[in-house]
Amino acid sequence: MSTNLTAELVLDAQAELGEGPWWDVARQQLWWVDIERGRLHSFDPTTGSDQTYEIGQRVGTVVGRQRGGLMLAVEQGFAAYDPDSQTLTVIHDPESHLPANRFNDGKCDPAGRFWAGTMDMSSQRRPSGALYSLDSEGNVAKHLDQVRVSNGIVWTADTRTMYYIDTHTLRVDAFDFDNRTGQISNRRPAVEIPADRGKPDGMAIDADDNLWVAHWNGGCVAAYDPRTGQTLARIDVPARQVTACAFGGPQLDQLYITTARIGQDEAALQAQPHAGGLFLAHPGVRGVPAVAYAG
Ligand code: ZN
């Protein structure tokens, strides 16, 4: 039994590769990125306005920082960003020896470590990517290698399980998570994505520990119970390349959804004129507040 919902357009952003939505509880705004254009955005739902920041290189994701400002995962590694002065400071580049790779999606774990993974930018999508974390002291740890396209990552409310998507596996995998040490173990499949739904991309977790997964080339976000692998709900999005989602709004009961225009021909874009837009759905459940970087 599952619910069918539809997302509505809230910002006709025409993003090349919209990604990385992160709801800022203090500002009541949504940060998000356009990876290919190297842009950070902040969307204010009260006014409907969207502010753009030029980062100067590809930017895979954005999270808040507890001391103020933001953290980004950019082509050159983990970086701090001050939106007021528009200053980018690269903190650590674990893949300076891999110029064909860039950072992609990432989020903070319950202890405030910033996790983000990498991917091969070439069309072969070699398994040269990895998953890293940056702890509050600025130490980088590598947790996985042989990654093709590192994407959605979330933690359960009890902090004991991490869910992760390497897009090309067509699965969501679960790991045991030690919040004290930041170590992962016991990888196992949690959700197998149905073949007609495209590929799993970004993901958000709700207050019941269910997963809301964006489907690249699937035109939807689907909710899964990771304890059973079953589909709970489906949100149709009027864009095929659905990239990521994040709970937001004053009650955390709205789901913001990013999409992409990249790599589609004129006919495909005419059929989905708002591809690259920011969409919103009311999923009927609440999310959890996003964690900011503790360092
Ligand atoms: Zn993604």
In short:
By secondary structure, the chain is mainly beta. It contains one helix and 25 strands. 2% of the residues lie in helices and 54% in strands.
Topology:
Blueprint: E1 3-6, E2 8-11, E3 18-24, E4 29-34, E5 39-44, E6 49-54, E7 59-64, E8 70-74, E9 77-82, E10 87-92, E11 101-108, E12 114-120, E13 129-134, E14 140-147, E15 150-155, E16 161-166, E17 171-178, E18 183-192, E19 199-205, E20 211-216, E21 220-225, E22 230-236, E23 242-248, E24 254-259, H1 266-271, E25 278-281
Parallel strand pairs: 1-22
Antiparallel strand pairs: 2-25, 3-4, 4-5, 5-6, 7-8, 8-9, 9-10, 11-12, 12-13, 13-14, 15-16, 16-17, 17-18, 19-20, 20-21, 21-22, 23-24, 24-25
The chain binds zinc ion.
Cα end-to-end separation: 43 Å
Hey, roughly how much beta strand do the residues contain?
over 45%
Strand order of the largest sheet: 1-22-21-20-19
Overall shape: globular
- Give, in order, the helices and strands: EEEEEEEEEEEEEEEEEEEEEEEEHE
As an assembly, this protein is single chain
Unreliable sequence segments: none
Bound molecules: zinc ion
